[in-house]
Amino acid sequence: MFRDEQLQRYARNFLLKDVGGHGQQALLAAHVLIVGAGGLGSPVALYLAASGVGQLTLADADTVELSNLQRQVIHTTARCGENKSESAATTLRAINPDINITPLPLRLEGEALALAIEAADLVVDATDNFTSRYAINALCVEKQKKLVSGAVMGWEGQVAAFAGFRPGLPCYRCLYPPTEAMDALQPCARSGVLGPAAGVIGTLQAAEVIRQLVGLSEENLQRVTFVDLHSWRFYSMTMRAQAHCPVCGG
Question: Least crowded by CB within 10 Å, which of 1, 63, 123, 172?
Fold first, then answer.
């Protein structure tokens, strides 16, 4: 069932009672779409690849810049000017040639986004703007795909998981209905971001993806977790479906 190399590579996963051989097989059979190969997408992709998620699709239209490297740890100085999805794929293939990596050097939207989500088993939102987050969420609800979302700014961040479409469970828009205040939020290029904050949130996203793929408890599908590294606080809140949500209808 597993090759000798896989038994060695994933040895620590096999020892985990909630993963073992069955869970590792589930990881190897899974296809995860990661939208964004920046501060959040970097740790997500690194840990999912190292853990043996069998197929990873990474989408990002941006190119690597020197200012990215303080937090986007999947890229290198030598790759400045290279597309982020292709740079990330190079790193991931070097870490784990046992899995399939598909870079998408484009901004996923419209039909292309719908097709990419349709092809995946689970979607990771590692984007940095509400327009993309709403579009990804709406299609995950339509296609009934689980979604793991993260966000980071300054010293703080948050991570949440969503069921796609399941009556009684919230979607991303239930958690964050559009408001004028959202338009005032500044991107990290203007407000700054702590590199390890992106690493913590992205790592939590990767852990949640693995939890869902190996069939652990789904209690996090109703929970958003906040991290404040400045005051060293970690706390969670229960999310509730909104009865009049235009995406999932509560």
Answer: 1
